[in-house]
Each structure stands twice: as structure tokens, then as C-alpha cells.
């Protein structure tokens, strides 16, 4: 269970006139309780949905207000929170941190009390689950975009988080890989919170949040949420 | 992003202090180390004069200016360690301990000091804006590289090739004009990076 | 070597040449100590004769290592031009004996160090380094962090090569290929974005925080 209480996120931004940096509001104040198994977050580019996702595991900390995961404050118990909340980014390039898939997954397993050989075997097993067994020792940059996203997922899930937050996990993928990743996420036991531009994927969630201009402007069933978002986009165009 | 002027409520709280950002430090250090390697192994940028600019010292100084003296020096040390261990990431795709025996070893060994000094001297950049900030960055880069990399390089030439000071300086002086240009470029890129990522400047260390 | 896909600068092997010679099996610490002793001996011994002996010993080491010559020649050839120019200068100023000593000393040391590099895996050498640097744990540099940074480095080089080639193409598409700024600035901005995203990803995976 993730709870946000009047969480407000600000950041420094350069002054267009060339003066000292200013403080701008990125998101909030937002108050939410997230308990549903499948939650989607939709909204325009720059609306603040990625910031909202990053709040959930303490990658971004609120300037005021609190964010709690199972009663752990992200500001003070960041490490414990991140152990519970896994995070998958849009671009797998930044999150594959080791030269080969095997090393990358093994790195996630470092927290567990395993010998080097056991870790190796567990990593190979995790790769096999995602159809990457053959590619275990190929350089990561030689994998296809879809394979890299699968590897990113494999590495995050190898640490066995309770909640998985995904920030546009399929935006860079073609239709085939998008289906693969969507099906994979749908089949997980964990609570999954997905930021997405894919309205079909959002429609399959239990609950959908619409973010606009740094605020949650709609929160509820998928069908009316998507409707609300479409109306919002149409209003911008008009 | 919402403009502050749209909020009638007045002053916003300052952004939360960065989370324990050891992970970001490691990532920045490793990425800048990789950047130095790429600058050293990529063919240089062609110029009108026909002498290509290789960007190794540019990347070393940029690391110091952008990351600050400690992380900047660590980035260069990581680059040196991996290169000396035998990954071919030094100029002309060489690597290994052999480079330490070469006449140019002094330059290489002085790189971490160059990044550190440039980073230290660039500290006032956080309190200045516009041209003043650029001038601080450029000056820091010039002093950072001349007082360390060129001094180290000259000492290396003297030791390895048994040259006297004058002869070593004569070899070294050829690189000075190019280095001024590279420092100007490093300062310009650092300046742009601080515009793009204002908190980068606040968190130099 | 794990296949042709692995670029030399993108792997943990580096300039290593696999083999099972005496030198390949020798512990890296011993080899490093040997190289240090050789470096001191070459610096202390004066005269062209001792320098020639040093080169002969280096060549003998090379033969024992059974590493093909073409694997090590690039490192030596790279400095040859500088060496010949300086050799000529020294000959002119201080006579042939000094010139020969200077040139042969450098060749011997470069050769020895290159053989060490070719017979020792890069990751093994980095492990030795991490062990030597263990006292630095007290200032927050643990061997684990060092290993993580090394892995991250090897992973990031191909990413940055890709980014800079794209920036170069983009500059060319705009007719700005002779403007270094049009290449450098976007490359650097994307590099920092990449580093911060990587930092976020590391933190999200609970890495690098200990």
C-alpha cells in the first residue's frame, strides 16, 4: 500500500532572463492511496506523471508532504522502500548497468546470501524465464531494443520487489515487443503501477489516474478516465 | 513544468535535498570516465586547418569543471585504472601498463590532478551568472591544465627521454594553442550543462 | 574471447591474449612486482650496453609468453616516431651512446609492460587494484563500488560512442559538420541525461547506496 499525503515536488529551473535559478512546481500537492493490483497513470508529455512515478519509490522526494510505502517514509527509509518497490524505466539503456545480461542480473542478486556460483545459476534461471538464456553473455549493447527492455525487467524482478512501477515501459518498443512486455506485466503476481501513453493498456487497469499540469485531475475507472484524458487533449488543440 | 507565476500561493518550498545520491555519483563518475575514453578513441573532429582536434584533455578538464574536484579526479582515476589494466582506451586505442613506459606518461599521470585543480578553481561558478560564470570556468580550465598536465608532461619527457628542461618545454609548447581552444570548448560545454541541469552546479563536490 | 561481437574496448579482456604459457599462469602480483623491479633496474643502469641487454631480456620474455608479435607491436610502434625524433636530437646534442640508451630503455620497458598486459586479463588486474585500494574503504570507496563503476564504465562506452555518432550525424544533416559545438553540446547534454538516468536506475535497484 502506497500513500501520498499532500506531496509537493519542486525543482530549480534556469531563469530565461539569465538571472539566478528559480524554484518551479513539478507536481502536487497530491494525496492518494494506491492499493489496487493494476494501476495506470496517463497524461500529456510534461504533465508530471513521471515525477509521480518516481515519488513512489523515493527516486524523487517531496519538498513538502509525505510519501509512505507500507508505512515506510521514502524520505527517511529510501533503501527499504526501493527494496519493496521495483522500477522499470522507458529506456533500458540507462538501467542496464553491466556489460553483459548475466552480470547485470547477477548484480541485482548481490543482496541475497548466495555464493558466486549460485548467483550465476539464479541469474541464468531469471534470464531463461524471459527468453534470454541464449543471450546471457552477449554484450548488452548488441541486444535488440525489445530484448534490452526484457533484460531490464528481468534484472528488476530478480530482486523480487512487492510492487513494480513502470515509467512508459513500452514507448520505445514495436508492436510485437509491446505485446510481449504487456503480457509479461499482466502475468505478474506483484502490484503493478504503469505510466503509459498506450490507452488500450490503460483500459485494462483496475484504476486509472489522469495527470495534468502537475495535478491528478481524474482518478477512477478506466473508461471514464480515458474519456477525460481525450477531452483534455481535445481542449488543448482547440 | 509549471511556472511559479501561475501559482497565486506565493513562495514554493525549495526542492528536497537530493536523496543519498551515492548511486548518482557512481553513475556520473563512470559516465565521465567513459566519456574521456570515447574522446580518446574516436577519431578527432576535423577542422578547417586540417589538424584534427582530439578531445582527451577536453574531456578531462570538463570532468573537473562539471563534477567538482573530487568526483572529477575519481572519474579520471577510473579511466586510468581501466586503461592501465589493459583495455585499449588511451589515445590511438592503446592501453596497458606499456603506456607508463612511454615518453607521454607524464601527461597521462597528471590528468587526475588537472581535473581536480580545474574543479577546485571552478567553485566560484555557482555564485556567478552569464559571462562571469563562463570566465570562471575558462580560467579554471586553463590554470587547471597548464599547472598540472603540462608540468607533468614536461617532467615525464625529461625523465623518459633524458631531455633538459628547455628541450622538453619546446616539445610541450606545441600543444599549448590547441589546449586553449579545448579549454574554451570545455568551459562552453560546462556552461551549457549547468544551464540544462541547474542542480548539477549545486551538487559539485 | 567470447565471440566477434565483443569490441575490444567493450569487454573485460582488453588487450589480453589467451594462452597457457608460464607468464599466463604466473600470479598477477608477481608479474607486477617483476615489472616494477625491471623499471627501477632500467632507470638505474646507465649506458647503451645495459639498455641493449634490457631489450634482449624483454624480447626473451615476449618469446616465453608465446603472444603473437602483432598483438604487442601496435603499442611499441605508436611511440617509435617520437623515439626516433628524440633519438636523433640526443645523438646530435649528446652523442650516439645517450641516444641509444634513451631509445632502447623506453622500447624495453614498453615491451615488458605490454607483455604483462597481454598475459593478464584486465578484470584480474582490476581485482588486484581493488585489493590494493582496500584501505580506501574508510573514505567511502569500497571494492564493490569500484567493481560497479568498472562494469558501468564498460557498459557506458558503447552507449556514448552511439550517442556521439548520432550527434555527428545530426550535425551533418543540418550542414554543421565543421562546427564542433553542434556535436559536442548535444553529446554532452545527452551524456549527463544518461548518467542521471543510470544513477536513478542504480538507486531504484538498491545499488551503489552502501
TrEMBL record, chain A:
GO function terms (MF aspect): ATP binding
Q: Pfam families this protein is in?
A: ABC_tran
Task: Supply the Gene3D superfamilies for this chain.
Answer: P-loop containing nucleotide triphosphate hydrolases (3.40.50.300)
**InterPro entries annotated for this entry?**
AAA+_ATPase (IPR003593), ABC_transporter-like_ATP-bd (IPR003439), ABC_transporter-like_CS (IPR017871), ABC_transpr_CbiO/EcfA_su (IPR015856), ECF_ABC_transporter_ATP-bd (IPR050095), P-loop_NTPase (IPR027417)
Keywords tagged on the record = ATP-binding, Nucleotide-binding, Transport
SUPFAM superfamilies assigned = P-loop containing nucleoside triphosphate hydrolases
UniProt domain ABC transporter: residue ranges: 2-238
Q: PROSITE patterns of this UniProt entry?
A: ABC_TRANSPORTER_1 (PS00211), ABC_TRANSPORTER_2 (PS50893)
Provide the family line: Belongs to the ABC transporter superfamily.
This one is known as: ABC transporter ATP-binding protein
Organism, by scientific name, is: Cellulomonas edaphi
UniProtKB/TrEMBL annotation, chain C:
Instruction: Tell whether Ubl conjugation is among the UniProt keywords.
Output: no
Residues passing through the membrane, by range: 32-63, 75-92, 98-118
* Subcellular location field: Membrane
Protein's membrane topology: Multi-pass membrane protein
Q: Which UniProt keywords apply?
A: Membrane, Transmembrane, Transmembrane helix
InterPro entries the record matches = ABC/ECF_trnsptr_transmembrane (IPR003339)
- PANTHER family named among the record's database cross-references: PROTEIN ABCI12, CHLOROPLASTIC (PTHR33514)
**What protein name does the entry list?**
Energy-coupling factor transporter transmembrane component T
Amino acid at each position: 500500500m502506497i500513500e501520498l499525503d499532500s506531496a509537493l515536488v519542486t525543482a530549480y529551473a534556469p531563469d530565461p532572463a539569465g538571472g539566478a535559478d528559480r524554484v518551479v512546481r513539478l507536481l502536487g500537492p497530491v494525496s492518494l492511496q494506491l492499493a489496487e493490483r493494476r494501476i495506470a497513470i496517463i497524461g500529456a508529455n510534461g504533465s508530471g506523471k513521471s515525477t509521480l512515478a518516481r515519488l513512489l519509490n523515493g527516486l524523487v522526494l517531496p519538498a513538502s508532504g509525505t510519501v509512505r510505502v507500507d508505512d515506510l517514509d521514502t524520505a527517511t527509509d529510501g533503501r527499504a522502500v526501493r527494496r519493496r518497490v521495483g522500477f522499470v524505466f522507458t529506456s533500458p539503456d540507462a538501467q542496464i548497468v553491466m556489460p553483459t545480461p548475466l552480470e547485470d542480473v547477477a548484480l541485482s542478486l548481490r543482496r541475497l546470501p548466495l555464493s558466486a556460483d549460485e548467483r550465476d545459476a539464479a541469474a541464468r534461471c531469471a534470464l531463461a524465464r524471459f527468453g534470454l538464456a541464449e543471450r546471457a553473455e552477449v554484450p548488452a549493447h548488441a541486444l535488440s531494443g525489445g530484448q534490452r527492455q526484457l533484460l531490464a525487467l528481468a534484472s528488476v524482478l530478480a530482486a523480487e520487489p512487492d510492487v513494480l512501477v513502470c515509467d512508459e515501459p513500452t514507448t520505445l518498443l514495436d508492436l510485437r515487443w509491446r505485446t510481449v512486455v504487456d503480457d509479461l506485466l499482466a502475468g505478474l503476481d506483484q502490484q503493478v503501477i504503469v505510466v503509459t501513453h498506450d490507452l488500450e493498456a490503460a483500459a485494462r487497469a483496475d484504476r486509472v489516474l489522469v495527470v495534468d499540469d502537475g495535478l491528478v485531475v481524474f482518478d477512477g475507472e478506466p473508461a471514464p478516465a480515458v474519456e477525460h484524458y481525450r477531452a483534455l487533449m481535445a481542449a488543448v488543440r482547440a | 513544468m509549471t511556472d511559479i507565476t501561475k501559482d497565486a500561493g506565493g513562495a514554493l518550498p525549495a526542492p528536497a535535498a537530493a536523496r543519498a545520491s551515492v548511486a548518482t555519483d557512481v553513475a556520473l563518475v563512470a559516465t565521465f570516465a567513459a566519456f574521456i575514453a570515447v574522446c580518446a578513441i574516436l577519431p578527432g573532429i576535423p577542422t578547417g586547418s586540417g589538424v584534427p582536434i582530439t578531445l582527451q584533455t577536453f574531456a578531462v578538464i570538463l570532468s573537473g569543471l562539471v563534477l567538482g574536484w573530487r568526483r572529477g579526479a575519481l572519474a579520471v582515476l577510473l579511466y586510468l585504472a581501466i586503461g592501465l589494466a589493459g583495455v585499449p582506451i588511451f589515445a590511438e586505442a592503446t592501453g596497458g601498463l606499456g603506456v607508463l613506459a612511454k615518453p607521454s606518461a607524464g601527461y597521462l599521470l597528471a590528468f587526475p590532478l588537472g581535473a581536480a585543480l580545474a574543479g577546485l578553481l571552478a567553485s566560484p561558478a555557482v555564485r556567478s551568472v552569464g559571462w562571469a560564470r563562463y570566465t570562471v570556468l575558462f580560467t579554471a580550465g586553463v590554470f587547471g591544465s597548464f599547472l598540472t598536465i603540462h608540468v607533468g608532461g614536461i617532467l615525464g619527457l625529461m625523465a623518459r627521454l633524458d631531455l633538459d628542461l628547455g628541450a622538453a618545454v619546446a616539445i610541450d609548447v606545441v600543444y599549448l594553442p590547441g589546449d586553449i581552444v579545448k579549454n574554451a570548448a570545455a568551459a562552453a560545454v560546462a556552461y551549457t550543462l549547468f544551464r540544462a541541469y541547474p542542480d548539477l552546479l549545486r551538487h559539485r563536490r | 574471447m567470447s565471440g566477434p561481437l565483443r569490441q575490444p574496448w567493450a569487454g573485460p579482456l582488453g588487450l589480453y591474449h589467451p594462452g597457457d604459457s608460464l607468464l599466463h599462469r604466473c600470479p598477477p602480483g608477481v608479474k607486477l612486482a617483476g615489472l616494477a623491479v625491471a623499471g627501477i633496474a632500467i632507470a638505474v643502469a646507465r649506458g647503451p650496453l645495459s639498455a641493449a641487454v634490457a631489450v634482449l631480456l624483454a624480447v626473451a620474455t615476449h618469446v616465453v609468453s608465446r603472444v603473437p608479435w602483432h598483438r604487442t607491436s601496435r603499442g611499441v610502434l605508436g611511440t617509435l616516431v617520437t623515439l626516433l625524433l628524440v633519438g636523433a636530437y640526443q645523438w646530435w646534442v649528446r652523442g650516439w651512446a645517450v641516444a641509444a640508451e634513451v631509445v632502447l630503455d623506453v622500447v624495453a620497458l614498453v615491451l615488458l609492460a605490454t607483455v604483462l598486459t597481454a598475459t593478464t586479463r584486465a578484470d584480474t588486474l582490476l581485482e588486484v587494484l581493488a585489493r590494493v585500494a582496500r584501505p580506501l574503504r574508510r573514505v567511502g570507496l569500497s571494492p564493490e563500488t569500484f567493481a560497479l563503476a568498472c562494469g558501468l564504465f564498460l557498459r557506458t562506452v558503447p552507449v556514448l560512442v552511439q550517442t556521439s555518432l548520432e550527434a555527428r550525424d545530426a550535425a551533418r544533416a543540418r550542414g554543421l559538420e565543421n562546427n564542433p559545438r553542434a556535436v559536442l553540446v548535444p553529446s554532452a547534454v545527452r551524456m549527463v541525461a544518461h548518467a542521471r538516468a543510470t544513477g536513478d536506475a542504480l538507486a531504484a535497484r538498491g545499488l551503489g547506496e552502501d
